[in-house]
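Task 17 of the worksheet. Students: predict the tertiary structure of the chain below and write it out as structure tokens. Keep your answer in the requested format; marks are given for formatting as well as content.
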Amino acid sequence: LRWRSAIDFPLVSAAAAAVMTKGQVDRVRLVLGGVGPAPLVIEEADALLRRQPPSEYLLNQAAKAAMKKAEGGIADNLIAPAEYRRRMTAVMAKRALEMAVKSGGTL
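Model answer:
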């Protein structure tokens, strides 16, 4: 997520990869960027989704877990308020997870 389309720092970013077998999550990796000094791995996403079919409820729970884990590293700055970036962390995390489980790629 960023304001401009080129030469801009992200407000928050999310990347996810999933290994799927027979409609269930074997493993998932979710990583957030722009929420602190280094990328933040959200282990809770794997704990919530592993050995489960990726339901809307579970994806929302994983996104909320990402937002909660990231909130301590998000600071107010001139680009965007911390509260906006915190809320967008959940949105970006869910989008990344949805794409990952849909593609069922490998880690």
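Marker's comment: Residues 68 and 94 are 13 Å apart (CA to CA). The first strand starts at residue 13 and ends at 21.
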